Amino acid sequence: xxxxxxxxxxxxxxxxxxxxxxxxxxxxxxxxxxxxxxxxxxxxxxxxxxxxxxxxxxxxxxxxxxxxxxxxxxxxxxxx
Length: 80
Fold this sequence. Notes:
The protein is mainly α.
């Protein structure tokens, strides 16, 4: 469990905290709560990684066939 805390401190983020505001939880209940929340947090953070778009061979070798049209020049180069 040192790896997530090391990664959180390296990124400058604080690890998530749990605060019980009502009732008296036993040690077993707290351990179960921490285990469930930690697992859910790990799954969510692992799934939150965006995949990098894959470029096809066509996209990599594609080149423009002509220069883009200049929209500032009127049709037929007539200003009137």
